[in-house]
Design brief:
The chain is α+β, with helices and mostly antiparallel strands. Helices cover 34% and strands 20% of the residues. It has 13 helices and 19 strands. The longest helix has 28 residues. The chain is globular.
């Protein structure tokens, strides 16, 4: 009996020690929520207060300190998520998880997300650079004091399979590569076109049109004088071009869905909606705004609620805002200050096109343009792989964009299937607005949280931020102001002119070859229930 009790006690002690050790391992990465932290680089002291739900509210004397503290707090709570997402955006997942992610990295590096992000950083204005740099400095201040399990529990687990991995310092460009992953999440028109292309050989154009009807001509439109063309442009692929490629198209869809599983995008039912009621139709006289952003469900959430507060509003510190941010990006994406509430939704334009490029049988690095052979641009990308040798891929690019079939066996099969129908070698390329240098559409909306010492409305409330329209993903922002009580809506982003949302890939001339894009649409604030189109915004309202 005594021996049994002794064994039982020993077992209980082992269990208690194991549980205690696990609890200590988990809790060592919990954020510090009280006391003081020495943060080199701050201009003046900053205060971070967390409410009963753990939501941080940051109080600072200037905007540099505000964004630096936000970067620090984001890293405290979500750095594993930030690190994972920057590796997605840069096509570097293999550095964390080994050869299982080589195909995903090759696909992303072929798309060129990190190269475009570098170009966007170089072209950014000084204000944007200073905000992103202050945010990065805050993230790195946290990394300087935390590594391994103290940084996040996931790093302790990752050591079991990748003992050499150590998170690198956060760079401002990492915020921009993250935005490319978000643009992919919200701009998945390519998948829809491939789905229709799979059905086209089996159903024919008329039956497919019944399943995917175009927008009725009699329905209302926002753009004045808008109408659909009566006929398709030259060069659109027909069902005959895909008769021999049906199986390959299904494999293409499988590859895209694989990337979507990493980014969390491409799910059916994703979308966004918002509405605003003018103050003339509410009992309080104040407008009512609702914004519902249907992004994919993730754990942790893609959203991070927090507040940014200037201790006193001045020209050097213009924020007093509460709302939701993206970890990895500074500022508040959607939220409200004391005078304006705003929300952002995905505009959902057709911004992606696949092209079947005719190749020169004697030189596969040349493709046909207007009856002549033109050389592709080519480069090499080196993928670092945890636990294995580096992998080098060759990336080719046409005037439309990257040749996806070079590193994707399924897309290569699509090209070969199309070649049977065309009688010449083929490649598959992609043109997508996010692969052209732009800004992040969320950043102009984020500046809506700013106030000025003269109490004027923030820039996006007045429409002045609409000048920064070359951004991705294309978004629609709706706002409601207290003084005077009014509502506005604006669309910002890059949306190409086109005939209509096509069912298949293009073959021949581009559907938007001349870089002609839709202008931004600004809705005039009105007191009635029907907004009207205005070519420009009215004067800034004041109180």
């Amino acid at each position: 009996m005594n021996r049994f009790v002794t064994i039982l006690v020993i077992i209980l002690l082992v269990v208690l020690i194991a549980v205690g050790g696990l609890a200590l391992l988990i809790r060592q990465s919990f954020p510090q929520t009280s006391g003081e932290v020495n943060l080199p680089g701050l201009h003046t002291p900053v205060e971070v207060l967390r409410d009963g739900m753990g939501i941080p509210h940051i109080y600072a004397q200037d905007e540099h300190d505000l964004f630096m503290a936000q970067g620090y707090v984001h890293a405290q709570d979500r750095f594993w998520q930030m690190d994972f997402w920057r590796h997605i955006g840069a096509g570097r997942l293999s550095e964390m998880f080994g050869d299982s992610q080589v195909e995903t990295d090759a696909f992303i590096r072929t798309l060129g997300w990190p190269r475009i992000a570098e170009q966007e950083w170089e072209a950014a204005d000084e204000e944007t650079k200073s905000v992103l740099q202050a945010y990065a400095d805050g993230v790195n201040a946290y990394l300087a004091e935390h590594q391994g399990g103290r940084l996040s529990l996931e790093y302790a687990i990752l050591k079991l399979t990748n003992r050499t991995y150590t998170p690198e310092a956060w760079q401002p460009v990492h915020s921009l590569t993250w935005a490319k992953a978000m643009a992919w999440d919200l701009g998945g028109n390519m998948q829809a076109e491939l789905e229709r292309a799979v059905l086209l050989p089996h159903l024919g154009e008329e039956r497919l049109a019944d399943l995917y009807p175009t927008y009725p001509d009699e329905n209302p439109v926002i753009l004045p004088g808008f109408s659909l063309s009566a006929s398709a442009p030259q060069g659109m692929a027909s069902s005959a071009d895909y008769t021999t490629a049906g199986d390959e198209l299904r494999l293409v869809l499988a590859r895209i869905e694989g990337l979507n599983r990493v980014t969390g995008g491409g799910l059916s039912g994703l979308g966004s909606n918002n509405w605003v009621v003018a103050g003339s139709r509410t009992s309080s006289g104040m407008p009512i705004l609702a914004d519902d952003m249907h992004l994919g469900i993730r754990m942790p959430s893609i959203w991070y609620e927090n507040g940014l507060h200037c201790s006193s509003i001045s020209e050097t510190c213009r924020f007093n805002v509460v709302g939701f941010s993206f970890v990895g990006l500074p500022a508040i994406v959607v939220g409200h200050n004391d005078r304006i509430a705003w929300g952002v939704t995905n505009a959902g334009p057709d911004v992606q096109d696949l092209y079947l490029e005719r190749l020169n049988p004697d030189n596969p690095d040349q493709y046909e343009v207007d009856g002549e052979w033109q050389s592709m641009d080519a480069r090499e990308e080196v993928l670092l792989v945890a636990g294995g040798p580096p992998v080098t891929i060759r990336v080719r690019q046409t005037r439309h964009g990257p040749v996806l079939s070079d590193t994707d066996e399924e897309l290569q099969a699509l090209a070969e299937g199309a070649a049977l129908a065309e009688g010449t070698p083929m490649a598959v390329s992609l043109r997508w607005t996010a692969l052209e240098p732009s800004t992040i559409c969320a950043l102009p909306w984020a500046s809506t949280g700013r106030r000025t010492s003269t109490n004027s409305a923030p820039p996006c409330a007045t429409g002045t931020c609409r000048r920064r329209t070359s951004c991705t993903p294309t978004s629609t922002a709706t706002s409601a102001t207290r003084c005077p009580a009014m509502c506005r809506s604006a669309a910002a982003g890059t949306g190409p002119f086109r005939w209509r949302d096509g069912p298949t890939a293009a073959n021949g001339p581009a559907r938007f070859p001349s870089r002609s894009f839709l202008p931004p649409t600004i809705l005039r604030p009105v007191s009635s229930s029907r907004p009207t189109i205005a070519p420009s915004m009215p004067p800034t309202p004041t109180c």
